[in-house]
Amino acid sequence: MQEIYNAESRTHAEKAIEAFAKTYGAKFPKAVAKITEHRDELLAFYDFPAEHWIHLRTTNPIESTFSTVKLRTKVTRDAGSPAAALAMVFKLVESAQARWRAITGAHLVPLVRAGARFENGILLERSEVAA
């Protein structure tokens, strides 16, 4: 699993998936089926800049974002009205965002949003079509 996760390119990850399937196919057929059937989704991060991979590989960004809110709301139990609860959650998230890690390679986000193509984390040059 670590070889798939930490592969340096899509080709190496594909080879690691095949090795995983060969090694564990008989013992864990359902796990191997999930990985092999959904390999495109599993390896989709290779279509983005390499600087963004650390953020895309994370297992649960929603949980880490709201962990502060979850801890505080369990302690207070009843926040009163729905408006008070919403205000409390807003202020907790607002204060927690100061500790969030900034995205690596933020200068590449406009390229991704514009539809630039990346292969194995490297920007592909657009070939100009002769008119």
Task: Give structural attributes.
131 residues, mainly alpha, 8 helices, 3% strand
Major sheet strand order: 1-2
Structural class: mainly alpha
- Rounded to the nearest angstrom, the radius of gyration is 21 Å
Mean pLDDT metric: 83
Distance between the amino and carboxyl termini: 47 Å
Helix content bin: 40-55%
Total of DSSP H or I helical runs spanning 4+ residues = 8
Q: Unreliable stretches, pLDDT < 50, 5 or more residues?
A: none
**Overall number of strands:** 2
Into which percentage range does the β-strand content fall? under 5%
Order of helices and strands: HHHHHHHHEE
How many strands, which pairing sense, and closed or not: the largest β-sheet? 2 strands, antiparallel
Shape: flat
What does this structure look like?
The protein has 8 helices and 2 strands, in the order H-H-H-H-H-H-H-H-E-E. With 131 residues, it is mainly alpha-helical. It has a domain at 2-58 and 116-123. Strand 1 and strand 2 (122-123) form a beta hairpin. Helix 2 (10-24) packs antiparallel against helix 3. The radius of gyration is 21 Å and the shape is flat. 3% of the residues are buried. Required for the transposition of the insertion element. This is Mutator family transposase. Keywords: DNA recombination, DNA-binding, Transposable element, Transposition. Belongs to the transposase mutator family.
